[in-house]
Amino acid sequence: xxxxxxxxxxxxxxxxxxxxxxxxxxxxxxxxxxxxxxxxxxxxxxxxxxxxxxxxxxxxxxxxxxxxxxxxxxxxxxxxxxxxxxxxxxxxxxxxxxxxxxxxx
Length: 105
Fold this sequence. Notes:
This protein has helices at residues 2-22, 29-49, 55-76, 84-103. It is an all-alpha fold. The protein has one domain. Helix 1 (2-22) runs antiparallel to helix 2 (29-49), helix 1 packs across helix 3 and helix 3 (55-76) runs antiparallel to helix 4 (84-103). Pfam families: Multi_Drug_Res. The chain crosses the membrane at residues 33-50, 57-79, 85-103.
């Protein structure tokens, strides 16, 4: 169950990163409110996952989901640039996440 909480926390991290961008430096009310609520939810779920998962594993997976997810949202929703180097970097992050999961009992 800890892995489910961790993935949910990572998804919420993607949401808060996106809505933080949309908040325009916390000057827009709704995106700011969504950012704060999803940050709290993300941290809360991460803390629950950390009850059983090792710190290094949980934190690495959480940040990796957020990083790669934000990268994908940036490209698909915000029209950010796609380059081979950026895609390779994302692939390497995902590879590291898979290795971290496989290394955790």
